[in-house]
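Sequence, please.
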C-alpha cells in the first residue's frame, strides 16, 4: 500500500522486533527481586561496617585506658628508680590491660622518657606512653581493603601537692616521750623504704598535722586518738624530692687563707666569711650561760668544729632584717665535721637570707656537710626561747628539735631522721626564700 510523501514504511520484521522491545520495557516482573537484592547488599554492608566500627571504638577506648594506666605507673616508678625501669613498668602495665608489646606484631607499646611529642616534650619528670594495635577486619572485609590501627596516647607526671615541713630522707620521723607536735599547715613525711617511715606506738604525745606521708608504711598514723590530721595519712607514696640536694655537691672552702679566730669574752661579734678575709672558723665555738654571740648577715663556715650554745647563752643577728640573714655551715674533714647543739633555756634568734651572698644558701639557715659521719645527732633543743627561721638541712644526721617559737612561720627540717617536739609552719617561707618540699601526686597531663 502506498503512503504519502515523508512517511517511512518499515518492514514487518522490524515492526515485530520493536514490539518485543516495547513489551520487555513494559514488563515489570522480577524488578522487585533485583531491588531487594541490591537493598540487602546495602543493609548487609552497613551492618558489617557498623559492627566492626563498634568493635574498633571499644578497642580504641581500651587502648587509651591502658595508656593512661601505664603512664601513671611509669611516672611513679620514675620517681623511685631509673628511666629504663619506668619503661619496663609501662609495658608491664599495658600487658596487664590486654596490650602486650610485640615487635612486628599487631600491638606495640612505646614508652618515652622523656616525652618526644606534645607540651611535655623533653620534660625529664614526665612519661609518654603510646599504645597501638592493628585491628582485624570482620565482615567489613568485603568492603575495606586494609584494617585500621587504634591508638591511645597518654603523658603522666608527678605534680606538687602539699607543703612538707618535716622530711626524713632515709629514716623515720618520730615524736618521742611526751612530745607535743603542732604542724597544722604542713605535712610530716619520710622517704624511708626499708621499714615504717613513721611508727607511733605508746606514749602520751599529741600531734596535730595537716597529714603524714610515707614511702613505706605508716604505723599508728591513722585511727590514733593522739594524732589529729586534716587529711588522713597516706602510705606507699612517691618519694619527696629533696629541695636542698644541690648543696651535697657544693665544694666547701678550706682554711687556705688561714682561720678566723673567735674572740674571747662574754660578748662576741663574729664577721661572716664574706667580710673576714674569706676565712673559715676553725674548731669549736661555745656560748655559755651569760655569753652573747652576735652575728652579722652572711655565711659562717665552721671547719672541724661544733657550735654549742648552753642554757643562758644567747646567739642573735639583730641586723638580719628584711631579706638579710645568716647561713651556718658545718664542714671540714669528713671524720671531724662538727655538730650544732642548742641546749635548753638558750636564747636563739636567727633567720636565713632571702638573697644570700652565696645564692646556694638562699633560705638555708643551718647546713651540715653531707660527708659528716652518718648517724650522728644534731640537737636543737632551745625550747620556747628558740627562733629558727629557714631551712635546716642535715642530710646524713639524726636531728632532735624541741621548741621553736619563731615569729616568722618558716621552719623546714630535712634530715636523715627527725625527732620533733615543737611547732613548725611554712606559711611565711617566701619571706626568707626557703624552698619547701612538696608531696607529689600522679596526674595525667596529656
Amino acid at each position: 500500500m502506498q503512503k504519502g510523501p515523508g512517511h517511512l514504511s518499515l518492514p514487518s520484521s522490524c515492526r515485530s522486533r520493536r514490539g518485543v522491545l516495547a513489551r520487555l520495557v513494559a514488563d515489570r516482573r522480577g524488578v522487585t527481586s533485583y531491588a531487594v537484592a541490591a537493598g540487602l547488599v546495602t543493609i548487609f554492608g552497613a551492618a558489617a561496617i557498623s559492627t566492626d566500627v563498634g568493635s574498633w571504638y571499644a578497642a580504641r577506648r581500651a587502648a587509651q585506658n591502658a595508656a593512661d594506666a601505664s603512664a601513671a605507673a611509669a611516672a611513679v616508678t620514675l620517681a623511685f628508680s631509673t628511666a629504663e625501669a619506668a619503661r619496663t613498668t609501662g609495658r608491664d602495665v599495658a600487658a596487664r590491660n590486654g596490650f602486650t608489646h610485640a615487635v612486628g606484631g599487631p600491638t606495640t607499646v612505646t614508652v618515652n622518657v622523656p616525652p618526644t611529642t606534645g607540651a611535655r616534650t623533653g620534660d625529664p619528670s614526665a612519661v609518654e606512653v603510646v599504645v597501638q594495635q592493628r585491628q582485624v577486619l570482620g565482615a567489613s572485609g568485603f568492603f575495606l581493603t586494609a584494617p585500621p590501627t587504634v591508638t591511645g596516647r597518654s603523658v603522666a607526671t608527678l605534680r606538687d601537692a602539699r607543703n612538707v615541713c618535716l622530711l626524713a630522707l632515709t629514716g623515720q620521723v618520730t615524736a618521742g616521750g611526751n612530745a607535743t607536735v603542732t604542724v597544722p599547715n604542713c605535712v610530716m613525711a619520710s622517704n624511708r623504704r626499708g621499714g615504717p617511715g613513721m611508727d607511733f606506738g605508746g606514749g602520751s604525745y599529741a600531734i596535730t598535722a595537716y597529714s603524714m606521708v610515707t614511702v613505706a608504711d605508716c604505723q599508728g598514723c591513722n585511727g590514733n586518738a593522739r594524732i589529729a590530721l586534716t587529711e588522713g595519712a597516706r602510705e606507699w607514696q612517691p618519694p619527696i624530692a629533696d629541695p636542698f640536694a644541690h648543696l651535697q655537691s657544693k665544694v666547701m672552702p678550706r682554711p687556705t687563707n688561714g682561720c678566723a679566730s673567735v674572740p674571747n669574752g662574754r660578748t662576741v661579734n663574729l664577721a661572716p666569711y664574706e667580710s673576714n678575709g674569706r676565712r673559715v672558723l676553725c674548731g669549736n665555738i661555745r656560748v655559755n650561760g651569760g655569753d652573747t654571740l652576735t652575728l652579722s648577715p652572711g655565711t659562717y663556715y665552721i671547719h672541724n668544729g661544733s657550735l654549742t650554745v648552753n642554757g643562758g647563752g644567747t646567739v642573735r643577728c639583730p641586723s638580719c632584717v628584711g631579706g638579710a640573714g645568716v647561713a651556718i655551715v658545718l664542714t671540714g674533714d669528713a671524720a671531724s665535721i662538727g655538730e650544732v647543739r642548742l641546749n635548753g633555756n638558750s636564747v636563739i634568734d636567727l633567720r636565713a637570707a632571702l638573697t644570700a651572698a652565696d645564692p646556694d644558701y638562699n633560705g638555708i639557715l643551718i647546713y651540715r656537710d653531707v660527708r659528716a659521719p652518718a648517724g650522728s645527732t644534731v640537737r636543737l633543743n632551745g625550747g620556747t626561747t628558740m627562733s629558727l627561721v629557714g631551712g635546716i638541712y642535715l642530710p646524713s644526721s639524726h636531728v632532735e628539735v624541741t621548741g621553736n617559737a619563731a615569729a616568722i612561720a618558716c621552719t623546714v627540717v630535712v634530715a636523715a631522721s627527725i625527732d620533733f617536739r615543737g611547732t613548725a609552719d611554712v606559711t611565711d617561707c617566701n619571706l626568707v626564700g626557703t624552698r619547701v618540699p612538696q608531696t607529689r601526686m600522679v596526674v595525667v597531663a596529656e
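The helical segments are 12-26, 31-80, 83-96.
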